[in-house]
Specification:
By secondary structure, the chain is of the alpha+beta class. The protein is built from 12 helices and 6 strands. Strands 2-1-6-5-4-3 form a 6-stranded antiparallel beta sheet. Helix 9 packs antiparallel against helix 10.
Length: about 260
């Protein structure tokens, strides 16, 4: 679902209409939302229809109950006639030095295994040198910033031809992208989803051998590599930039991969 941009402020949709869109996207009834937010369903109805003007605190309370991302919470506040509550700084800003340094330390410490920091659109913000090592042979166009890991992973000129059991990995990436597109309502993510769905599909979409997690199995000039991916984020973020960052670490799933990556 694509939401209207509330940054249009006065000439955009009213805050009540935007909150109704978010509630519907979460498949919540007015009663469900009222119970979660600690208000009456009558009040929810009045806010959505414009009969009641919510305070900034009420907008944020409802947004929290609906798990609205920080960027979109700012847009809701603007639509309601209030100032944004969350800052949005460049990652190189002095105020984000602690977060930036922590991320870079993790990237460096994870060597010789791949690790990336991604933004909301799955574009690479930071990466360690091991990422370049496993991306050898991919199209230069796909490796030109901003590098999108979904596109790089599934494009026929990217990693896709070298991924063993591409079907399960493709479904894993599409599932991640779909969830984020649904959670944020971001049209760029919806466009990316439409794009990658149009890429050539593997001849077999067999789920592969049963395991505890979907593995990335990759053919490489030094041998076959197998990784497990783990993602982390700053759960208490109060800045839009930080809230949208994801740290993804690829751990070797076997001793052979550990040895081969050390050789690279």
């Amino acid at each position: 679902m694509v939401f209207h941009s509330a940054s249009r402020a006065l000439d955009g949709p009213a805050v009540g209409e935007l909150l109704r869109q978010w509630r519907n996207s979460r498949r919540r009834s007015q009663l469900d939302l009222a119970i979660e937010a600690g208000i009456s369903s009558r009040h929810v109805s009045f806010i959505e229809t414009g009969r009641s003007r919510p305070t900034a605190e009420m907008i944020l309370r409802i947004a929290d109950s609906l798990d609205v991302p920080l960027r979109e919470r700012n847009q809701l506040l603007l639509a309601g006639g209030y100032a944004p509550a969350y800052g949005e700084r460049d990652l190189d800003a002095p105020a984000l030095a602690t977060v930036r340094d922590a991320l870079r330390r993790v990237l460096a410490a994870h060597m010789p295994f791949p690790a990336v920091v991604l933004d909301r659109h799955f574009d690479v913000v930071e990466a360690n040198a091991a990422v370049a090592a496993i991306a050898e042979g991919c199209s230069l166009e796909l490796l030109t910033p901003p590098i999108n890991v979904i596109r790089l992973g599934l494009h026929p000129d990217g990693l896709a031809p070298r991924i063993i059991d591409l079907g399960p990995w493709r479904e894993h990436l599409l599932s991640q992208l779909t969830r984020r597109a649904n959670r944020t309502g971001d049209p760029r993510l919806t466009e990316l989803l439409d794009e990658v769905r149009g890429y050539p599909q593997p001849s077999s979409v067999d789920a592969g051998p049963a395991g505890v997690a979907v593995e990335l199995r990759l053919r490489h000039r030094v041998g076959d590599l197998t990784f497990l991916s783990m993602a982390a984020s700053v759960q208490t973020a109060l800045d839009v930039t930080v809230d949208e960052l994801t740290l993804e670490l690829f751990h070797p799933a076997d001793d052979a991969t550990r040895t081969l990556m050390a050789s690279l």
